[in-house]
UniProtKB/TrEMBL annotation:
<feature type="compositionally biased region" description="Basic and acidic residues">
    <location>
        <begin position="1"/>
        <end position="25"/>
    </location>
</feature>
<protein>
    <recommendedName>
        <fullName>KOW domain-containing protein</fullName>
    </recommendedName>
</protein>
<feature type="region of interest" description="Disordered">
    <location>
        <begin position="1"/>
        <end position="75"/>
    </location>
</feature>
<feature type="domain" description="KOW">
    <location>
        <begin position="75"/>
        <end position="104"/>
    </location>
</feature>
<dbReference type="InterPro" id="IPR008991">
    <property type="entry name" value="Translation_prot_SH3-like_sf"/>
</dbReference>
<keyword id="KW-0804">Transcription</keyword>
<dbReference type="GO" id="GO:0031564">
    <property type="term" value="P:transcription antitermination"/>
</dbReference>
<dbReference type="Pfam" id="PF00467">
    <property type="entry name" value="KOW"/>
</dbReference>
<keyword id="KW-0805">Transcription regulation</keyword>
<feature type="compositionally biased region" description="Polar residues">
    <location>
        <begin position="43"/>
        <end position="61"/>
    </location>
</feature>
<dbReference type="InterPro" id="IPR043425">
    <property type="entry name" value="NusG-like"/>
</dbReference>
<dbReference type="InterPro" id="IPR014722">
    <property type="entry name" value="Rib_uL2_dom2"/>
</dbReference>
<keyword id="KW-0889">Transcription antitermination</keyword>
<dbReference type="InterPro" id="IPR005824">
    <property type="entry name" value="KOW"/>
</dbReference>
């Protein structure tokens, strides 16, 4: 078994060397290959110069803030975005803001079924 692993490793190393040689012949810079020490140094340097900043003052955060979606109201149409009922569309029956649970009514097999979901699993349906 060890012999098989050794042969596979040698073969992989051979292909890696051939690939690197091809990349060098084509003139492609080897920017993706960094030694572990270099990566650690880069991370350490970036942390030491950064200091403490507010998230809103961060230079990396150039994009405008996302507008928070308004909570749907009882009776509105909602779509489930994750979980067992993902992509189902139903009617919001009640929303408990304290616990973060939403009761949604779905029509399954011609009968309305009430399901309790986490608030983060639903979004208001745009009509």
């Amino acid at each position: 078994m060890e012999e098989i692993f050794r042969e596979a490793k040698e073969e992989q190393e051979k292909y890696d060397r051939e690939f690197e040689e091809e990349q060098q012949k084509e003139g492609v810079p080897n920017s993706l290959k960094l030694a572990d020490d270099d990566v650690t140094k880069l991370v350490t340097d970036s942390k030491s110069t950064r200091g403490f900043q507010k998230v809103s003052d961060s230079p990396a955060n150039d994009s405008p803030r996302k507008k928070t979606s308004k909570l749907p109201t009882a009776g509105s149409t909602v779509r489930v975005v994750s979980g067992t009922f993902a992509e189902f569309v139903g009617t919001l029956k009640k929303l408990n803001r304290k616990t973060g649970k939403a009761t949604v009514g779905f029509t399954l097999f011609g009968k309305e079924t009430l399901i309790e979901l986490d608030r983060r699993e639903i979004v208001a349906e745009n009509e």
